[in-house]
Request: fold
Amino acid sequence: MRTMMHEAPPAPAVPAAADGVWWTFPALPVHARLARVWLEGWLDAQCPGKEEQAYGALVAFSELVTNSVLHGAGPITVHARLMDRKLLCEVTDRCVDLPMLLDSGPEDEHHRGLSLVEALTESWWVRAAPGGGKTTSFLVDLDAG
Reply:
């Protein structure tokens, strides 16, 4: 088991509340799917024709939300914004336990989520969330591919 802590990029100059889209919901399993649909709809509106590039981001986002639902504590807040054709996604929950990148065997049906996030994103990181808990974030280049 490894805890992955990547250094977060510098904080944006724009106030976070005025930037991108936000959604807060209870930590219920149904929200993992709904959060992916929510992000997909927003990306379709913001980046038409980028469905192929956005696919990896949707999978990574789904994995982070699922981790927060299963292993975190609600409520969960998700945030997405575009920065020069790069997509920043953040998932915040109220659990202080850090996500673990686990080695999984060929027969293991679980423990692959963060490996997918690592493989599908440009970078990802975890930081303490204001008010407690943690925020797990990633960056994807929507012009790559």
